[in-house]
Design a protein that fits this description.
Length: 321
């Protein structure tokens, strides 16, 4: 049980080493009951379209996040409520659906290959080198039997290598069904096959990796809603600790009443939606999750104390000001 102990106002948020946030942002007090943006990207390529972000625009998005005081957080750490974002900064979570080629492409380099610098993976790696305090975190929701070219990023001979490299880089893999099947359209048996075989395929490619999060294609729950969370098909089991939706709004803090890991909304990374939520959280900073820099405490204004989920799974101490 979380206990609330009134404290004095926390000190001015410290600036992480090498960080260059927006000067206005670092004046914000901690608010660990605020909203967290989970951004949903699809194709990375030319030209800019509804489901496609250009490489330059993806770079610009990362720069915009960085300058506005956001730092990457892994989906797994968010679900664990292990938010180690430096004090004064806000976590942001990146997800990429459908395993299309522009997300992770190799180019020839002599006797070997290297990550295409214009693919999402290449852009993320390069940005992290230039701004190590930003982090290198993302979850790729993959399609092991997707229709080409979306079957595990294209380039069939490199499928296993790419999945392993994502994990080796410290990023994550998520379930998006075996071949992008909207689960509300099929039988219970088909639902379990789609989710279980996706887990089977990834575990065979990356031995020991536990894929335990799912992004529902088109946000479509199965008719038997419980099968989105756990099931079995021909001896292969899956159990999801989080279900990600397609809804266009930020997610609640894990410490806040109403938080539900089995129905996490995301923001589609289109220009209009990015502008809407960047702008909305900038104009209403009290709505934005701002870290106190200590994952063992939950810090927030007394004005929003009624929003605290006292049964928060962290069991951490809470402090209000």
């Amino acid at each position: 049980m979380v206990t609330i102990t009134p404290t004095a106002a926390p000190p001015e948020p410290a600036v992480a080493r090498n960080a260059t946030p927006n000067p206005e942002f670092i004046k914000l007090p901690p608010n660990e009951l605020g909203k967290v943006m989970i951004l949903s990207y699809h194709m990375i390529g030319e030209p800019e379209q509804r489901w496609q972000r250009t490489p330059d625009n993806f770079r610009n998005d990362l720069e915009r996040l960085y300058q506005a005081g956001y730092r990457l957080l892994s989906l797994r750490d968010f679900l664990d409520n292990n938010i180690t974002t430096p004090a004064g900064f806000s976590p942001v979570i990146l997800t990429l659906d459908d395993s299309s080629p522009g997300q992770f492409r190799y180019t020839d380099k002599g006797q070997d290959v290297e990550i295409d610098p214009n693919s999402a993976a290449g852009i993320l790696v390069d940005f992290a080198k230039k701004h190590p305090d930003f982090g290198l975190e993302a979850t790729f929701f993959v399609l092991p039997e997707g229709a080409p070219p979306d079957k595990l990023f294209g380039q069939p001979k490199y499928e296993q290598r790419k999945l392993q490299q994502i994990v080796d880089l410290g990023m994550d893999l998520g379930n998006h069904t075996w071949w992008h099947q909207p689960l509300g359209e099929v039988s219970d048996e088909e639902v379990q096959m789609q989710l279980a075989f996706a887990v089977k395929s990834v575990k065979e490619a990356v031995p020991g990796y536990e894929m335990d999060v799912v992004a529902l294609p088109l946000g479509s729950y199965p008719k038997n809603r419980a099968l989105a969370f756990a099931g079995e098909y021909k001896g292969y089991r899956y159990k999801n600790r989080a279900v990600l939706l397609a809804g266009e709004e930020p997610a609640a803090s894990p410490n806040r009443n109403g938080y539900d890991a089995l129905a996490l909304p995301r923001i589609q990374a289109t220009q209009d939606q990015l502008d809407l939520w960047f702008g909305g959280l900038a104009k209403n900073p009290a709505e934005r999750y701002v870290s106190d820099g200590d994952p063992n405490t939950i810090t927030f204004s007394a004005a929003v104390a009624d929003q605290l989920d006292e049964a928060s799974p962290t069991g951490n101490a809470a402090r209000k000001y």
